[in-house]
Amino acid sequence: MIQGRRELAPTDALNRVLVEHPSHRDTIFWRAVLFWLDGDSDAVKQLSSRVLQREPLWAPPRMFLGDTVRMEGDVQSATRQFQNLLDQAPDNVNAVRLLAMAYMDADRPEQAHQLLESKRPTLEKNYMWRLVRAVLLAREGRHAEAIEAMDENTLKFAGAAFPSTLDAAEYYALMGDTPKAVEWVERAVRNGDERVAWFQKNPRLAAIRQDPSFQRIIDSVNARRAARGQR
To answer: What are 25-47's pLDDT values in tens digits?
Structure first.
């Protein structure tokens, strides 16, 4: 996945292990991650909840469960999931990023700012913290600060970290740079992200939805999914 070669992910093997060992937590989790990349919300929720019933303190499935309900529009439930994670580990940067995104989705940017600033002493040099802060600054129209936050190394991180690659597309869309935003949507897809329903309703991508190149990406993903027999 980190190499952007999702086609090599052994989906069939994961499915076989789940049949033979239905309680194998790592298999359940990685199958849920692949469903998350497919945008299959029901499968993500079912598998993540299965793990969390037995191991409620295991953070990774709660992250993807919370992110899934966030994309479905249930920001209140997502916020509870992310706050639960921060109660367990106050400097969990994944939870910080996701909670900041949830605040933005709820049009509560001031809370996103408060959250990120409260974590600055420990997370300021973390690329994920810098990435979501750049998105927030771009959303607020603070372009000079956003450019400073989105430095070369932060962008390099976005290109490699498949759960965060779309954040760079959001940043460029909010900055008014449609070609760059579309380029990063395409890069997210190359990294395995096929959440086309979310691409089309993501509020931070609103400025590029009518761009023909963006629509071609959506059409291409839908065609591949149809060929694989996915909805």
So the answer is: 899 999 999 999 999 999 999 99
Tokens of 191: 């990294």
Place of tokens 């298999």: 27
- Asked if the domains at 1-116 and 125-231 fall in one CATH topology, the answer is yes
The residue ranges of every structural domain in the chain are 1-116, 125-231
Question: What would the pLDDT profile of 100-151 be if each residue is shown by its tens digit?
Answer: 999 999 999 999 999 999 999 999 999 999 999 999 999 999 999 999 999 9
Give the DSSP H/E element, type plus range, for residue 130.
Answer: helix 127-139
Domain 1-116: CATH superfamily, name plus number: Tetratricopeptide repeat domain (1.25.40.10)
CA distance 117 to 35: 33
Instruction: Evaluate whether the domain defined by 125-231 bears CATH number 2.60.120.
Output: no
HSE of 136, CA atoms in CB hemisphere, 13 A? 29
Query: pTM (2 decimals)?
Result: 0.92
Angle, CA 55 vertex, CA 54 and CA 60 arms, to 5°: 130
